[in-house]
């Protein structure tokens, strides 16, 4: 008689455990769907780009400042565009080429023998520019709206 009393309880406990496992599985599936949904929304956002007009200044080691601007076009990681420095007639609409990966931009200024290495955060680009004097100059530019 004792065995008969415990068997239904054991079977009920087994059913309860199966139901708990099933509910827990549902919870995990819902959590996974939620996380995947957030990830897909985040990845659907437009990746940061650098196309557009950028205006700002660079500063020499002696503290002299000069204005300049880029007009950049982007195709994937490839960057093309122009650089203008109104204080230097040799740098008016000079071609620039380079790459943009993650938040790092690297530009070459072939005709002037210069280079730009910088970091982009939103509408601000900062970094170092090797000018025609072969000195690295600190620069900051912002994207024109």
Indicate the mean pLDDT.
Answer: 80
**Remind me, CATH topology of the largest domain?**
Lipocalin
Output the structural class: alpha+beta
Strand numbers in spatial order across the main sheet? 1-2-3-4-5-6-7-8
In CATH, what is the class of the largest domain? Mainly Beta
Tell me what the structure shows:
The protein is α+β, with helices and mostly antiparallel strands and 145 residues long. It has two domains: 1-45; 52-143, Beta Barrel (Lipocalin). Strands 1-2-3-4-5-6-7-8 form an eight-stranded antiparallel barrel. It starts with a helix and ends with a strand. The chain has one helix at 2-44, and strands at 52-59, 65-75, 78-84, 94-101, 104-109, 114-121, 124-130, 136-143. A hairpin with a 2-residue loop joins strand 6 (114-121) and strand 7 (124-130). It is rod-shaped and about 85 Å long.
Ordered list of secondary-structure elements with their pairings:
Layout: H1 2-44, E1 52-59, E2 65-75, E3 78-84, E4 94-101, E5 104-109, E6 114-121, E7 124-130, E8 136-143
Antiparallel strand pairs: 1-2, 1-8, 2-3, 3-4, 4-5, 5-6, 6-7, 7-8
Can you describe this structure in just a few lines?
This protein has about 140 residues and is an alpha+beta fold. It is about 30% helix and about 45% strand.
């Amino acid at each position: 008689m004792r065995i008969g009393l415990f068997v239904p309880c054991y079977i009920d406990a087994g059913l309860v455990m199966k139901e708990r496992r099933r509910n827990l599985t549902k919870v995990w599936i819902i959590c996974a769907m939620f996380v995947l949904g957030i990830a897909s929304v985040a990845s659907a956002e437009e990746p940061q780009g650098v196309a557009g007009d950028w205006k700002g200044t660079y500063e020499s080691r002696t503290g002299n400042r000069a204005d300049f601007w880029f007009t950049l076009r982007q195709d994937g990681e490839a960057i093309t565009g122009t650089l203008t420095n109104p204080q230097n007639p040799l740098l008016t609409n000079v071609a620039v080429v380079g790459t943009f990966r993650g938040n790092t931009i690297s530009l070459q200024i072939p005709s002037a023998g210069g280079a730009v290495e910088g970091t982009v955060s939103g509408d601000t680009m900062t970094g170092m520019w090797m000018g025609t004097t072969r000195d690295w100059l600190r620069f900051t530019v912002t994207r024109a709206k």
